[in-house]
Structure formats: structure tokens, C-alpha cells
């Protein structure tokens, strides 16, 4: 297995990822949309607002079906009837006041014509426009961005602040392709940032902390570099997602095998404190944001970034305050925490590498070898003629 080329390694990991995903129960046909609300801090001033997030069912993310995204589990479903989706979203939009902040999301990319047809997308956007939202947010893979699609958004929402979110994951192409299984070329991320900027839209680069195969130190260094490189590429906001182990994903399976652990909450604190003020001026909020640092353990999320029972509430409180106003000063108090050993253990993880003799390719080969051992049958011996 150590002689395996990177191309062979990636192909094997993709096959494993696809096999694991096939066992996920699909969304039921009667679940056509969902609405959840949450508090979000938006814009340069970090105004605290109520966000209305609409999810609508699709056949599933196109790239999910290709075995990409080692860590995502946004679900799959049977083919949809667009008329039912439109009716379902319309009913839920009726609950939203005019001038609200609205996030519209399928299971993958809003701008992907294979997942969301142009006709369905336009119908849904026209419904959103009827609420005259102050802000409209969406997420898409960079491969599917075009100037024409962004022009449609601006035409349908002429007076709305629009935010495009892009799943960068890692700015390192090798980490992104081998650890996240996303082979998206670097140019696509640069082009997406440029198109959003030219259209007058804000942009968010989603960056993960804790990719499959990375040691804790490698993960920290990768996200640190990713934040600064995405900034340099022109993204308005850098949003850090510390990864959890989710069922139905290759990352979740690696966790079950004892071959991956989530990053610690203290690793996230150190990362944010180090990068928050890089570009911020006096009196201004920074360009960092965070998400998914406190998911509920359930049938999907099996393990999450964590501390101990003593420090967890204090860290959550500090991270929530940071999300509202992302400057290092918001983390100064928690940085002096001495109520448990969690900060010290994280510092030890980041001061060296407990698996220093291996890099992430070696760890990925170990994961691939484990999968092969458990799931790939031996080639049958041909019967003598």
C-alpha cells in the first residue's frame, strides 16, 4: 500500500467514500423543504440578525454522487417534482417578514444546473424576492459559478445584499484533493471570488479545521494558511468550520476505526486569536467567522470538536461572543483559562507532532489499507481449464 501512487490512493478513497454513502437512508418524498432560524452576525459591522435558512430537497449534491467531500453528509433523496418543491417553499416563506435575512440552500449547490434546474432556481428566487429581503445568502461549488447566473440573481434581487458562500475547505490543492476528495482546480476558487466581487456581492470562503489524514498540527497549520490565502484571493469573510465525525462519510468511518479525531475546541480558540486581527483596523470587526463548532451529538454527528465538561461552557460562550465581534480581544479572557488541562494538552499537540514520522499521505494510505482489508474481497482464483 505504501507504493501506491497518489492517483491510485485518491481513487481508492473515492470508491470507499461512495460505498459508505450508499448506505445513507434517503430523505422521504414528503420532506420537500425545511425552515430553521438562528442568530447570525453579518456585514462589516457584524450586525446581529435573525437568519431564515430554507433547505429544499433535491436528488442530492452532484459531487456527493461522485464520491467527493469526505466529510459532508447533507443527504440524498429520490428525484423531485419541482412543482411540489415550489409549493412547499412558498408556504414556508409566508412565515417570513419582509426585509428579513434569507438563506436558500439545496443539499449541495444552488447554482448547479444538474441539481437545481434553472427553471426551478428562478421560481424559488422570485418567491424569495417577494419578501424583499435585506440580505440573501446561498452556497455553491466554484465550478458552477458563471457571470450569467450571478446576473440573474442581481436582476431578481436588485435591492438586496447578496452573499455567495464557497466551500474552499483547504487552500492547499493536495490537501483538498486527497483529504477532502475535492479535485477542484485552484483557478475555480479565484474565479468565483472575482465574479462575486465584480457583481457587487459579498463572498465567504468556507475553510475546514481537521481534514482527514492530517495530524492535529498539520490541520492547524493548513487552516492558518488557508485563512490568509483566501483573504489574499479577495474573499470578504473567512468562515472556519471545525470538522465533526458524521455517519455516512469516509471521515466518520475513519473515526470509527480510530484513525481520525476531531480538532479540539482550544485549537479553534488559538487559531482564531492568532488570525483575527490580521487585517482588522482599530474599531472594526475582523473578517473571520465560525460555524458548526457546537453540533449536537445525534444519529449523524458522532463526535465533535470538544473540551471537557469544565471548560466546554466557557469556551462556547467565548466563541459565541467572538462570532458576534471577531477580534482577538474577545478571546483574551478565555486564553487565560486554568480550570482544566485541556489548553495544555492542545498546546502539546501543536508544539510537535506525535506522528512525526508520517505525513498526511501516509495516514491516508493507512485508512485506504484498512478499508481494503475489511471491504475488498480477494481476487477469486480461476478454475483450472
TrEMBL record:
InterPro entries: Elp3/MiaA/NifB-like_rSAM (IPR006638), rSAM (IPR007197), rSAM_sf (IPR058240). SMART domains: Elp3. Residues 51-274 form the Elp3/MiaA/NifB-like radical SAM core domain. SUPFAM superfamilies: Radical SAM enzymes. Coiled coil: none annotated. This is Elp3/MiaA/NifB-like radical SAM core domain-containing protein.
Amino acid at each position: 500500500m505504501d507504493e501506491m501512487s497518489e492517483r491510485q490512493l485518491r481513487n481508492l478513497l473515492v470508491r470507499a467514500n461512495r460505498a459508505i454513502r450508499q448506505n445513507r437512508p434517503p430523505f422521504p418524498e414528503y420532506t420537500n423543504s425545511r425552515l430553521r432560524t438562528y442568530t447570525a452576525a453579518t456585514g462589516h459591522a457584524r450586525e446581529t440578525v435573525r437568519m431564515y435558512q430554507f433547505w429544499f430537497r433535491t436528488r442530492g449534491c452532484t459531487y456527493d454522487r461522485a464520491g467527493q467531500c469526505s466529510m459532508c453528509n447533507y443527504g440524498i433523496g429520490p428525484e423531485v417534482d419541482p412543482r411540489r418543491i415550489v409549493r412547499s417553499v412558498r408556504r414556508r416563506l409566508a412565515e417570513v417578514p419582509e426585509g428579513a435575512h434569507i438563506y436558500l440552500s439545496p443539499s449541495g449547490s444552488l447554482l448547479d444546473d444538474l441539481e437545481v434546474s434553472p427553471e426551478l432556481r428562478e421560481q424559488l428566487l422570485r418567491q424569495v424576492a417577494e419578501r424583499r429581503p435585506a440580505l440573501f445568502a446561498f452556497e455553491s461549488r466554484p465550478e458552477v459559478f458563471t457571470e450569467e447566473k450571478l446576473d440573474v440573481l442581481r436582476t431578481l434581487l436588485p435591492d438586496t445584499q447578496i452573499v455567495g458562500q464557497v466551500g474552499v475547505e483547504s487552500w492547499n490543492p493536495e490537501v483538498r484533493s486527497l483529504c477532502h476528495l475535492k479535485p477542484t482546480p485552484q483557478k475555480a476558487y479565484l474565479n468565483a471570488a472575482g465574479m462575486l466581487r465584480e457583481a457587487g456581492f459579498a463572498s465567504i470562503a468556507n475553510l475546514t479545521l481537521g481534514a482527514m489524514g492530517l495530524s492535529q498540527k498539520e490541520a492547524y497549520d493548513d487552516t492558518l494558511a488557508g485563512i490568509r490565502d483566501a483573504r489574499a484571493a479577495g474573499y470578504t469573510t473567512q468562515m472556519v468550520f471545525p470538522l465533526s465525525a458524521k455517519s455516512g462519510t469516509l471521515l466518520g468511518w475513519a473515526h470509527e476505526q480510530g484513525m481520525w479525531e476531531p480538532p479540539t475546541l482550544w485549537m479553534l480558540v488559538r487559531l482564531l486569536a492568532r488570525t483575527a486581527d490580521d487585517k482588522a483596523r482599530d474599531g472594526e470587526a475582523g473578517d473571520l467567522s465560525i460555524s458548526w463548532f457546537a453540533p449536537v451529538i445525534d444519529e449523524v454527528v458522532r463526535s465533535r470538536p470538544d473540551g471537557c465538561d469544565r471548560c466546554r461552557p466557557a469556551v462556547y460562550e467565548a466563541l459565541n461572543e467572538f462570532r458576534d465581534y471577531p477580534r482577538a480581544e474577545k478571546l483574551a479572557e478565555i486564553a487565560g483559562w486554568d480550570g482544566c488541562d485541556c489548553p495544555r494538552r492542545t498546546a502539546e499537540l501543536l508544539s510537535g507532532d506525535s506522528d512525526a514520522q508520517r505525513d498526511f499521505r501516509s495516514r491516508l494510505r493507512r485508512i485506504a489499507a484498512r478499508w481494503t482489508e475489511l471491504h475488498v474481497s480477494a481476487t477469486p482464483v480461476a478454475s483450472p481449464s
